[in-house]
Amino acid sequence: MQKFISLAQIDEVVNVVKKKISIQPVIGMILGSGLNGLADSIQKPVHISYSDLPNFPTSTVHGHVGRFVIGELEGKPVIVMQGRIHYYEGYTMGEVTLPVRVMHRLGVQSLFVTNAAGGVNADFAPGDVMLITDQLNLMGMSGLNPLMGPNLDEIGPRFPDMSQPYDRDYCDMTRKVAKENKLTLRAGIYAGLSGPSFESPADLRFLRLAGVDAVGMSTVPEVIVARHGGIRVLGLSGISNKANLDGSTITTHEEVIEAGRVITPKIETIVRGVLRGM
Length: 278
Ligand code: HPA
Hints:
Blueprint: H1 7-20, E1 27-31, E2 43-49, E3 67-73, E4 76-82, H2 93-96, H3 98-106, E5 110-119, E6 129-136, H4 138-141, H5 168-180, E7 185-192, H6 201-209, E8 214-216, H7 220-228, E9 232-242, H8 253-277
Parallel strand pairs: 1-4, 1-5, 5-9, 6-7, 7-8
Antiparallel strand pairs: 2-3, 3-4, 5-8, 6-9
Helix pairs in contact: 1-3, 5-8
This protein binds hypoxanthine.
């Protein structure tokens, strides 16, 4: 396991990927738990398993496939992570965010991230889709910022701005697409925790007091690394379960995957609509 990833290690991966593809992807996508069905509708797909890439972590979670799919969606050249890497799997932050570094070096300028999340906002219900408007970096606040270690000056500055982690134009486009398709779209703040245990009632009360709308175990590190390289980000959370602030029900991974079946078509509609408008 490597603590920090160097530019040479990133480019080793990039060179292997480049040899296998004939298009230049400009849009990257990361598909969350139970939401990876969208990758199956990529046209002219080239599949590259994470296990065939040097320096690359492999995804170990049930419900995650673990490969890149490169091809076209709505006529746009895309590189899709079918299955993401989570910090709780035991990888370093450098490894968790290596795929975003690789996307950046391949020429990706926009990143669509999706995740499954627990609804902390009392108005949210399982099956809802939330546009992420901002994020709470709880992992980073406790010392797990993916940009720790030597700065990759060729990619971005030592102290990158984070005033707009989620691109405002993409947010506007998403709202418009949702409206056109008569989809109810929630909007709010996503908090990233390391997991893998779900939150206790006290954790959830704390998050609600902090103004959090949805909570999950991913996304925040990838978005920080994307912004470090100037990639514009669109984020969508599929609300898979309701936060239980009084401890009267339990949360399971199975319900997270199950909710994905309802959420996937909604996210697909939004992603396709935004892509068409780009
Ligand atoms: N908490 C954290 N991560 C999650 C949840 C949750 O309730 N649901 C899906 N991912």
